[in-house]
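Sequence in, structure out. Go.
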Amino acid sequence: MATDSAVLDPDRAVEVPGRREQILRAAQKLFADQGFRETNLNDVANQLGFRRQAVYHYFRSKEEILYELIHRAGHAVETSAQPTLDADLPPAEKLAEVVRNHVRQLLTNVDIFRIQFSELSKLSGERADGLRREMLAYARRIANVIEAGQSDGTFVAFPSLTQALLILGMCSGTTEWYSAAQSRLSIDELADYAAQLALSGVMGAGSTREVKTQRSR
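Output:
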């Protein structure tokens, strides 16, 4: 795969406070507006009004920028879910809040997740594989919550990782169509609906039990 990269001269490199974050923000907007494949590092430099070499000091390729954006977004999801996953809560309550959090995180930073879902599968190499392993590890943590619910009889017996991946797929799908300007639902309201749908699935289609869940906003 062709990359947009260059060799740096470390003796001429100059650190500029805040420049790295500027580049990441500009690149994310360009990737979202015109597509990752259609964007190059010249575009990023032009967007910020400085020379291409200034971008190369911080990132050797646009793929490197993409990897960092995806890693940061995934880390934000996992970090925000950590208190709930670690809490001593009933499985249904825990799963509902994890789903709410996941949807909120995706839709408050929708551009990078749209880019991730579109591009990560096309990338190869150890760094891309590492990002995929991180995503699978997060899904396994959700599967552990589902297994706990199966053990106490709250959830139906069905492969827990499959259920976790299906739930995450449902949440990820919201990034394809949700628009705050056009939707009649707020992000929090949509997150609540997603949580209820997830619970309906893991409790079985015929279940009519109402599960009370905490809402953390």
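Check: The two ends are 42 Å apart (CA to CA). Residues 158 and 174 are 24 Å apart (CA to CA).
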